[in-house]
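Researcher: I'd like a candidate sequence for this fold, 493 residues long. If you have to choose between options at a position, lean toward the conservative one.
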């Protein structure tokens, strides 16, 4: 009997393959970064072929590191950066253009035209989403209208569209599918029927023939080809929903926050979609086999870990991302400055695509240590804004926050996060909960795990941070942040 599950975790900056045992323990992992392409201000692209090649490399490398054979794997799950859009030729598998990344803002004009007749929330009652550059649908429209011959090929049934999950599954198995969580991030799916919305497709001039079939998050889609021949591919979750699942947030009212390229807080709201009046997204949490779909509220922040990466790559202030903590610890506070990282506009709870990044409150006193500290604090402040919105929408005050993602190893940030939220922040023993969630979905589909109780037994606390800040100071700091955010509005006209 196979004793392990493999998970592809295809993120915004890198791809990993992680092999887990039945206890959710990591047996082997391999990771490779891929190129970030910035053709123009506000444009962000990836090379889909490079992503597929890196995916194959990390799968092989992790297997080699583990000393296992492919037959030792019971199944493969996939989790992915969401909204990043690929369109390719069905006959050749060749992308017609680079993948347009979720952070990309080139579809601003398309979104403005859509909002002119009905406002930004025109489709929210059906899709749970505002009209924004973030989502896949406008990106598909841009590709079909701007890549030579693309629209003609699409109408002839020669092209396929997918987010990165669909692209990888198609290359792995030859099957053109997505799951409900990824479909819910396109602005094209009806939340209640879990089907493509033909009226929105018509408005965006997207032929239905290019869309993948929508399936559950946990079922056997097909078996892999190539090196992993005949291994079932049986789990598919967008990365933030995968983290919700990996953090075993199976009950309504349970929430998690993932600190990656961006920051994403999800709250399980149960079997009914909950409308937000505070700038959050209504999204799919997961759907297991033929069970009823579970919904979530989400607060999406575009830039958190990416700001650290920017400090490293663009400003050369640090050599590696982990250096930021040491730099920030060189001072007691941020010296009164705030860094609002609206590089792709502001996501939740504002949805202001015309905002741009700014450092505010600068004086001659400020050093790079203060800037490093302000970079970290920006993640915590943005999370506070999302948590406040979530409390207001749900009517349930969160009493603790489960956290995961690359930045949770930064203890300075985690303590400041607890201080500014005034709730305990809890890091689990397995911080790679995104990949773990994909592994869980895949394993449930093939009987590797029998039920949610087994998964809950795998979850354990690694460390907890408790608030240690005076209320007056907390309120003053957060009021300064809100003031700084307002200064970034209406920058792009």
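Model: Candidate sequence:
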């Amino acid at each position: 009997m196979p004793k392990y599950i493999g998970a592809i975790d295809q993120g915004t900056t890198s791809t990993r393959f992680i092999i887990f045992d039945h206890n959710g323990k990591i047996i082997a992992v391999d990771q490779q970064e891929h190129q970030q392409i910035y053709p123009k201000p506000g444009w962000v692209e990836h090379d889909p072929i490079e992503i597929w090649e890196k995916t194959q490399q990390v799968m092989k490398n992790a297997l080699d590191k583990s000393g296992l054979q492919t037959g030792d794997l019971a199944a493969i799950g996939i989790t992915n950066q969401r909204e990043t859009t690929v369109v390719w030729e069905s006959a050749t598998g060749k992308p017609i253009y680079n993948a347009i990344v979720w952070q990309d803002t080139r579809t601003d004009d398309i979104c403005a035209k859509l909002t002119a007749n009905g406002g930004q929330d025109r489709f929210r009652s059906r899709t749970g989403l505002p009209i924004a550059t973030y989502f896949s649908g406008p990106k598909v429209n841009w590709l079909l209208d701007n890549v030579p011959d693309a629209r003609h090929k699409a109408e002839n049934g020669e092209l396929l569209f997918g987010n990165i999950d669909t692209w990888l599954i198609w290359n792995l198995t030859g099957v053109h599918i997505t799951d409900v969580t990824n479909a819910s991030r396109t602005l094209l799916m009806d939340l209640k029927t879990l089907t493509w919305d033909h009226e929105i497709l018509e408005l965006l001039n997207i032929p239905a023939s290019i869309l993948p079939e929508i399936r559950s998050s946990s079922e056997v889609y097909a078996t892999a080809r190539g090196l992993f021949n005949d291994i079932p591919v049986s789990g598919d979750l967008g990365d933030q929903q995968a983290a919700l699942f990996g953090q075993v947030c199976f009950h309504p009212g349970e929430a998690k926050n993932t600190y990656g390229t961006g920051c994403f807080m999800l709250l399980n709201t149960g079997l009914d979609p909950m409308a937000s009046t505070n700038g959050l997204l209504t999204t799919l949490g997961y759907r297991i086999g033929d069970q009823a779909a579970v919904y979530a509220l989400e607060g999406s922040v575009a830039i958190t870990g990416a700001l650290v990466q920017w400090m490293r790559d663009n400003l050369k202030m640090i050599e590696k991302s982990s250096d930021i903590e040491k730099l920030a610890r060189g001072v007691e506070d941020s010296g009164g400055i705030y860094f609002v990282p609206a590089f792709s506009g502001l996501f939740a709870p504002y949805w202001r695509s015309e905002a741009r990044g700014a450092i505010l409150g600068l004086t001659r006193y400020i050093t790079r240590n203060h800037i490093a500290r302000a970079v970290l604090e920006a993640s915590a402040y943005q999370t506070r804004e999302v948590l406040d919105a979530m409390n207001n929408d749900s009517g349930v005050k969160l009493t603790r926050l489960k956290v995961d993602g690359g930045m949770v190893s930064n203890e300075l940030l985690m303590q400041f996060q607890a201080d500014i939220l005034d709730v305990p922040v809890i890091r689990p023993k397995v911080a790679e909960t995104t990949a773990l969630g994909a592994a869980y979905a895949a394993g449930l589909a093939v009987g590797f795990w029998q039920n949610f109780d087994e998964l809950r037994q795998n979850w354990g606390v690694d460390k907890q941070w408790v608030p240690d800040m005076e209320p007056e100071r907390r309120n003053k700091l957060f009021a300064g942040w809100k003031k700084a955010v307002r200064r970034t509005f209406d920058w792009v006209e």
